[in-house]
Amino acid sequence: MSDKKASDLEKSLILTKISKLNRYLGFLKQLRDVSFEELRDDFKTIGAVERYLQVSIVKHNRYWQ
């Protein structure tokens, strides 16, 4: 693969990851007004918050190392 193609592919992968990260952050922003008590009492909401935080931090952090 030529350096140009590799560079274009890497740029495309980075843009895709940024797009996904923005999507996850959007989901989290929708949940930011949920109180601690609501989180504690609603396993679906706490699961969603935990999952989107996890994929935002762990998945995307692997690429940059």
Can you offer a commentary on this structure?
With 65 residues, the chain is mostly helical. The longest helix is centred in the N-terminal third of the chain and has 28 residues, at 3-30. The protein has one domain. The protein has helices spanning 3-30, 36-41, 43-64.
Report the principal-axis shape. Answer: rod-shaped
pLDDT < 50 stretches: none
Strand content: under 5%
How far is the N terminus from the C terminus?
23 Å
Number of helices in the DSSP assignment? 3
SSE-based structural type: mainly alpha
Tell me roughly what share of residues is in helical segments: over 70%
The H-and-E topology, N to C, reads as HHH
Number of strands: 0
Cα gyration radius (Å): 16 Å
The averaged pLDDT comes out at 85
Summed up, the domain count is 1
Tell me about the largest β-sheet. none
Q: What's the layout of helices and strands?
A:
Elements: H1 3-30, H2 36-41, H3 43-64
Q: Would you summarize the structure shown here?
A:
This protein is mostly helical and 65 residues long. The protein is 86% helix and 0% strand. 0% of the residues are buried.
Keywords:
mainly alpha, 65 residues, 86% helix, single chain, 3 helices
